[in-house]
Amino acid sequence: MKKVLIFGSTGSIGRNALEIIRHDRNNFSVLGLLVNKNIELLNQQIREFHPRYVCVVDEAKAEKIREYLPKKVKLFYGKDGVREFSLLSSDISLMAIVGISSLEPFAINIKRTKRMALVSKEVLVVGGKLWKNLIKDNSIEIIPVDSEINALFQLFKFVDKNQVKKIYLTASGGALLNYSKRELEKVTVRDVLSHPTWGMGERITVDSSTLVNKGFEVMETHYLFGIDYQNIDVVIHRESSAHAFLEMRDNILFGCFYVPDMKIPISFSFYYPKRFLPIRGLDFSFESRDLSFNQVRRNDFPLLDIVLSSARIGENLPIVVNAADEVAINYFLKGRIKFLHIHRAIENIFNSTKKHKVRSLDDIFFWDNWARLKTEEFLKKLLVN
Amino acid sequence: MKKVLIFGSTGSIGRNALEIIRHDRNNFSVLGLLVNKNIELLNQQIREFHPRYVCVVDEAKAEKIREYLPKKVKLFYGKDGVREFSLLSSDISLMAIVGISSLEPFAINIKRTKRMALVSKEVLVVGGKLWKNLIKDNSIEIIPVDSEINALFQLFKFVDKNQVKKIYLTASGGALLNYSKRELEKVTVRDVLSHPTWGMGERITVDSSTLVNKGFEVMETHYLFGIDYQNIDVVIHRESSAHAFLEMRDNILFGCFYVPDMKIPISFSFYYPKRFLPIRGLDFSFESRDLSFNQVRRNDFPLLDIVLSSARIGENLPIVVNAADEVAINYFLKGRIKFLHIHRAIENIFNSTKKHKVRSLDDIFFWDNWARLKTEEFLKKLLVN
After folding, report:
1. How close, in Å, is residue A192 to chain B by CA atoms?
2. Could you give the ipTM of this predicted complex?
3. pLDDT tops 80 at residue B159
4. What is the pLDDT of residues B44-76, one digit of tens each?
5. Helix B316-333 crosses helix B303-313 at what angle (to 10 degrees)?
6. Chain B contact for A153, CB < 8 A?
7. B67 at A interface, C-beta within 8 A
8. What pLDDT is attached to residue A287?
9. In chain B, whose CA is at the least distance from the CA of A288?
10. CATH topology for A151-384?
11. What dihedral angle (degrees, nearest 10) is formed by the CA atoms of B45, B51, B52, B58?
12. Shortest Cα distance from B259 to chain A (angstroms)?
């Protein structure tokens, strides 16, 4: 029986993970659930999965749930609560917190869990450098859950890394792939959130449409598998069925495929090295299946290259880019700025940040905070609402 | 320096293999070349590659080449010559003889070579049962060169076989894929030989268009990897870029891809376990690459199911089916029968053969001969020319 901690249980990934546990109670039990503020859903999850610990980040919401809690459940809340919750020991921890908030729980819990199933890519995007040696030594077990990186994890188990020439990450291209530059100027929140293949959280859906998400995945690939940036490429693949390819030195490629449903890679991260999928209806079928592959229109989606440039420079650059992205997306989702202002916010922070060494979590939080303030300042001049 | 024997050096595969050796003289030398009767090309190959041994199956042709041979080259010829040539010891033997003639050289040389790079699928189609235990024990090294089976060989090196649910072999569908039943009745030799993606020998090109070839590959898969027939499926893939897929128990698939050029799998079979391709210009590109996958129209291409039925029955059935196929294709290529008469010849032999145990090469040759005579008898009634 494996004890599972879920960081972010009411989000899309958290709910999918619980769906898997629901179908295999003999092998998995829920040790703890952490949520930001959706206490209604948390309440249902508590009643169904009987965790021993819960954590509510939002203190006001924590107060509200306290009276409904079964006696046996211990409640953590607020910043300190997140730290205490992160100190729990687990067999599997699913880290699925949106944004940079995942950083501290990851840093604490990675020493307490036997397996970190990692969704929160910011852990690597802004903190990759800090865990680089731990990953290299294999002294921590991280299984990436993000479909493309999960596919790479599987493919890299196969091959001699020294014989790999190039890595291809696929990108659906998000909701706006075929929009012209002119059309991109008028894009609404609704347009952006209509992702063609994946049902995901709001931030990652916006990041998919700007290809910022794909830039972040290139960074995950770099840090998790130790691959040089010049050997990682992105290819547009509309159907989200092929997730990644390895091209070998002899021009032979290996690809990893599954239907675009996150239950598959989550399940992989739970059962590995066994292979089992406790849920039906996720069959891949070759019947009249067309798979298309195209180059990225880099001129129309310039953020991919900005993110990749920040990745190559490293240190504080990816941190400020991520922060500007988070802030700008929040503004956009609230209708305060236009879609292309996300571009401008990221361009602005990238161009106005000098490189500084990053040596600790505190350094990361410093640059994150700095960039948030700077980006808010910048966006205030652009407000439409 | 690896010593290479090439059985069938003037065919399409043999020429491609020599092209690889031409580009890597430091690692490979040609020990011997065997041809059926193309002595003009053999002569050129001798002058370029300086083999110590050559073998010409056709005795009359052997006489003609004798006077031109450099003194150091030993000539074998005829049936006995093939046997003696097959007794040579090599580091790599490339078995690329068309049809059942490959059987005896394989049986002899498999004990003399360190690595059998196998193209001649009849070795497994008609003789699979005889080598089953040797393959299972890993007491012989066979690397399949045929692109689909080669892809499977590579994929199976990756995975735990017990976790594989299903195998997909791709089929280009050959030249006649989109012909209606009515159009198939009027097909000419030229139509059939216009293969859309692969440049190959004549017999395999016809076998591709009837899907008999794909049925034979299913048998190769069964014998080489010990997979039940019910777990092997065929999928039409027009672009011949994806060669095979493994579907795992958790609905995750792995695929193997390369441009349709036999130099790639031949090279793989030469360098394995290293990966190297000494020839340029065979890059796989994702730029605007569409890959299509479709079901086989089994009603219009009934030979696939007949071949698979003969495979499931086993023993002498695949032998007689292969023999009828070889005879009928010869008749068709000479313009003596219509294309659909190939179907009828195979149906006829399948329906009129009772199952008998096969225990030896002699048994195989008996049934092969029996079926050839019977098929010629049958086809004589259908002659158009």
Report:
1. 24
2. 0.95
3. yes
4. 999 999 999 999 999 999 999 988 899 999 999
5. 150
6. no
7. no
8. 79
9. B294
10. Rna Polymerase Sigma Factor; Chain: A (1.10.1740)
11. -40
12. 8
Residue span(s) of chain A under CATH 1.10.1740.10 come to 151-384
Pairwise CB contact (< 8 Å): A249 & B275:
yes
Give the predicted TM-score (pTM) of the model: 0.95
CATH superfamily of B2-120: NAD(P)-binding Rossmann-like Domain (3.40.50.720)
Chain A, chain B: beta-carbon pairs less than 8 Å apart: 131
Nearest residue, CB atoms, A286 vs list B282, B283, B293: B293
Give, in degrees to the nearest 5, the angle at Cα B382 between B381 and B384.
Answer: 125
Mean pLDDT on B139-168? 94
d(CA B251, CA A276): 8
Q: Categorize the per-residue pLDDT at A303 as very low, low, confident or very high, splitting at 50, 70 and 90.
A: very high
Question: Out of A242, A248, A287, whose CB is closest to B275?
Answer: A248
Predicted local confidence at residue A196, as pLDDT: 75
Amino acid at site B197: T
Paired strand residues for B93: B5, B116
Name the residue in chain B with its Cα closest to that of A244: B254
Q: What is the pLDDT of residues B27-49, one digit of tens each?
A: 999 999 999 999 999 999 999 99
Confirm or reject contact between B290 and chain A (CB < 8 A).
yes
Between the alpha carbon of residue B24 and those of residues B21, B45, B50, B83, B265, the distances in Å are: 5, 16, 15, 29, 16
The percent of residues above 70 in pLDDT, for chain A, comes to 100
Of B253, B282, B286, the CB nearest to A293: B286
